[in-house]
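Internal tracking record. Fields below are filled automatically when a chain is submitted to the structure queue. Please do not edit lines marked as system-generated. If the sequence contains nonstandard residues, flag them in the REMARKS field before resubmitting.
Queue: standard
Priority: normal
Entity type: single polypeptide chain
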Amino acid sequence: MDLFDLTGKVAVVTGGNGGIGLGMARGMARAGAAIAVVGRNKEKSAKAVSDLESLGAHAVAVEADVSDEAAVAAMVESVVGQLGAIHILVNNAGTNIRKRPEDLAADEWHQVLDANLTSAFLCSKACYPEMKKTGGGKVLNNGSMLSIFGTPWGPAYGASKGGMVQLTKSLAAAWAEDNIQVNCFLPGWIDTDLTRRARQQIDGLHDRVLGRTPAGRWGDIADFEGLAVFLASRASDYITGTAIPVDGGFSMSG
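SYSTEM-GENERATED OUTPUT FOLLOWS
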């Protein structure tokens, strides 16, 4: 359908070389978008670009530390130079340090906040002028279930993801007049490298997740393809400032 057609659009996906970011990049690539994969692992990004090219997309890799303002500015310049514009931004880059609050060092706190939340602010701010030039745009922010509830081992991660929801609302309110829609998605327990490490670190996590998830399974990165296309396309032009759980029903279950 034309509503979901992304032909001629350019999407920047931070952390797009794996996990949920790659899943979203694949969805937008299938819908016709050109993709800029932003990450720090050159080999992993090159593999992701090949993956997207196999779907018929024009894709490039851009190396950048998205928590650094100068690096973000250079990234935007590189993307525009190679692909001509920026219409869509997926703020997906992030990390976690699983420690109880009393064991978390201040530098570890800042590391998680900078990677997860500051990066989204910097990338959104840097991409805004490019979107405004084209008459509008879409910003998709990766939140988490931990923006809804807390855990003893995720103080910095939960704070960053709660902040992501509020940043989403602020950007949506500020940029609505520029025809830029900003929305947040809240992944549940998705089968990625990060959650595989969590299963190694947290006893019984796998069974507890399955027991509480009505869908009866862990999520897959492919579960984000359709959402990415919807939130990046004209189909969502009157939706902004929202936070959408993608968790198989985990967050609604007791």
